[in-house]
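hi support,

uploading two proteins for the ticket. first:
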Amino acid sequence: MLELSGPPVAEAVYQELQTLLATLPYVPHLRVVRLGDDPASVAYVRLKDRQAKRLGLSSQVDVFPESTSQEELLAHIARLNADPEVDGILVQSPVPRQVDFNAVLEAIDPLKDVDGLTPVNAGRMWMGLEALESCTPAGVMRLLKHYQIPLAGKEVVIVGRSNLVGKPLAALMLREHATVTLAHSRTQDLAAVCRRADVLVAAVGKAGLITPEMVRPGAVVVDVGINRVGQNEKGRDILVGDVAPGVAAVASALTPVPGGVGPMTVAMLLYNTVIAAMRRRGRPTGERLQAAR
């Protein structure tokens, strides 16, 4: 079985970006907004900030109390939209319950939407137009391309219909001429649907949901899920995916968790930041990086 490891692919993206950054007369600036001190959010934001700076980008994290009102957050986003030095804006989710995340997304300037989740970018992606693409789906596509997994004419089943992964990934798969099924909690006989797949993507957030009996022998399996199922003796979180361990004996290729899709999400965030800066600051991007496809 081929392990679809994320770090080497992410590193290839970073090398491409470093080559491009050396030609720019400015340093792209990423702004990450975090509300509250949720441990997972703190860890994710720290990782994004650290990797951005390692790459040579300018990065700043704006931390607000969990009690921050939606009006206060939207006012801050408006300031970031208007700031010519800010190239990318990301509001870390989940947000506190008093904040409507959809309203937050609608408030972000689509040209600075490095998470690729605003209605404008989502709509342009579905229309096949140039857009800042949702980071995790873009990372999945780059991963599959790197390992030369063919998609044209293949049957792809995506389990999970979220705006974050399932829906945008379906759009990107269609762009590569795959036949796509979006399965979800209301899908009848989920196992039978999954067994049709040449490429099966699990993006639900439920540990071990996909069992070996649900996978066609020889299928490519992409595990997007990250689930915390306890802590080890050193007090560190134990992370597992949506795919049960036994699937490795059935699949022809499988992404590990951790170390599969996760590194690609961060890489594509920074890719989007550089592309957003180039578009905003007037440099033509017809020479799109290889990481775009």
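and the second one:
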Amino acid sequence: MRAPLGNFDDATPAPDCLDQLVAPVAAAVRAWRGDVPADQLVYVDTDPEIADTAAFVETYGRELLEQSANCVVVAGKRGGGTTLAACLVLSHTRVDVNGAVRKQLGARKASFASMDTATGESGMEYGGITPVGLPAGWPLLVDPAVVDTEWVLVGSGRRRGKLILPGKAFAALPGAVVVDGLGV
């Protein structure tokens, strides 16, 4: 199979390589429902040693700079409680944590979650967190630019490998809310 974007040697429909995915991501792919068929979720093998954006796009394709999205975990605090959420923005933008995220979560304060919290709560590796397979109940805040991109490269739940999905699929993930102004 050829990946819909990038120059990857190894591309496979995600349902055919569940053993390459961390448990929560594999479970989400196994239970996939919606307008986008599961076989349109593509897993591509990548070298975890060249995960840095500059080296990654040089190796796998310059167009990936405009077609990749970052998924980050944030913590919104109000009173004594904390709400964890994931935010998905195109990789050439940044998450508006103090504006759009704080407002959407109804938090007094919002910040990026610590690495230990992000990995421990998501069951995914740092640098590979993906919106596919997030914990139940987590809000997934998605920038409209991600949804409007034909194909989007995101993490696979671990540092080795990535997932490629149609952008519109992210709006249909559990807990997804499209938030104007999320990526700035």
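thanks. also noticed: The chain is about 20% helix and 25% strand.
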